[in-house]
């Protein structure tokens, strides 16, 4: 974890209510896709957690959806402004244990960390297939960016206005291994169709670095903090009935 004061390079709308913020930092603390930052938002006591979408040595990209006052304030910040944050938080995807040819599944605002994961897999010499799920066409974002890392991309929309009609679970019968990030209902639906994999969870967070226990969940291996042992877990340890 690193305490960071980054400079906003861009903060632009990608789709309906979805923004991309690129930040410049003297030293980037992210070491794995799926990690997150806790951002200090003006006039807000608690920092807001946002997953890293991609990163390199001196910059990182966060993609967020405006859902409340904090993210609305974030969307109004301008290039050149500085933002304080904690970066390099959490346990991200373990690229070493992901098999070649793995399927990456993202739903809605769970899609951005999948882009960083696709990039890391390509760097590790592994191929991947990508399945992206949205509600409707005007919420679609990042599809072109995934084309830098794979030709095998399926886009599903619930209303059929872009790509194929249906949910991400309609795009395949069963999978031996998948990495996923998205709404809890999507992850639960995937659980029955995916044998093994790494799933990213969300929880309301206080500190974001393991101190307050506010994000604890029960798993098959005991109590785990979503911010510290997660947000990415082996799906086999999750106890869905407690989430
Ligand atoms: C590890 C982690 C990674 C995340 N990554 C991203 C990301 O990459 N992009 C992104 O847009 N969002 C992400 N989120 C969710 C994001 O943190 C919340 O949407 C944000 O904090 C809401 O702040 P707000 O002040 O705008 O909304 P608030 O005013 O705090 O809340 C507005 C609404 O959003 C809901 N909400 C707030 N926080 C969460 C949460 N953690 N999970 C589910 N619902 C919530 C509230 O219940 C309420 O209905 C992530 C959350 C976690 C825990
Ligand atoms: S948010 Fe404080 S321990 Fe996870």
Automatic annotation (TrEMBL):
Gene Ontology MF terms: 2 iron, 2 sulfur cluster binding; flavin adenine dinucleotide binding; metal ion binding; oxidoreductase activity
Binding, [2Fe-2S] cluster: 207, 212, 215, 227
PROSITE patterns the UniProt entry points to: FAD_FR (PS51384)
Ligand binding (FAD): 48-51, 70-71
Cofactor annotation: [2Fe-2S] cluster; FAD
Record's keyword annotation contains Magnesium: no
Keyword Hydrolase attached: no
Residues of the FAD-binding FR-type domain: 1-96
InterPro entries per UniProt: Cyt_c3_hydrogenase_gsu (IPR012165), Dihydroorotate_DH_ele_sf (IPR037117), Dihydroorotate_DH_Fe-S-bd (IPR019480), FAD-bd_FR_type (IPR017927), FNR_nucleotide-bd (IPR039261), PyrK_electron_transfer (IPR050353), Riboflavin_synthase-like_b-brl (IPR017938)
One BP annotation, GO: pyrimidine nucleotide biosynthetic process
Family assignment from sequence similarity: Belongs to the PyrK family.
Name the record gives this protein: Dihydroorotate dehydrogenase electron transfer subunit
């Amino acid at each position: 974890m690193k305490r960071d004061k980054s400079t906003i390079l861009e903060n632009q709308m990608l789709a309906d209510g979805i923004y991309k913020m690129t930040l410049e930092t003297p030293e980037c603390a992210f070491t794995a896709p799926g990690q997150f930052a806790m951002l200090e938002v003006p006039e807000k006591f608690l920092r807001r957690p946002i997953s890293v979408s991609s990163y390199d040595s001196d910059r990182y990209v966060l993609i967020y959806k405006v859902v409340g006052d904090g993210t609305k304030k974030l969307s109004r910040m301008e290039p050149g402004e500085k933002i304080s944050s904690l970066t390099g938080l959490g346990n991200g995807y373990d690229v070493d244990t992901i098999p070649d040819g793995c399927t990456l599944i993202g739903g809605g605002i769970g899609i951005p960390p999948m882009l960083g994961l696709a990039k890391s897999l390509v760097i590790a010499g592994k191929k991947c297939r990508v399945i992206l799920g949205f509600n409707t066409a005007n919420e679609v974002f990042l599809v072109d960016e995934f084309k830098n890392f794979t030709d095998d991309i399926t886009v599903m929309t619930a209303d059929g206005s872009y790509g194929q009609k249906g949910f991400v679970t309609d795009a395949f019968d069963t999978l031996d291994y998948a990495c996923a990030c998205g709404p809890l209902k999507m992850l639960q639906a995937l659980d029955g169709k995916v044998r093994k994999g790494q799933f990213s969870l969300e929880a309301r967070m206080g500190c974001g670095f393991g101190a307050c226990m506010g994000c604890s969940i029960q798993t098959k291996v005991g109590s785990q903090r979503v911010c510290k042992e997660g947000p990415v877990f082996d799906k086999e340890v999750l106890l869905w009935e407690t989430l």
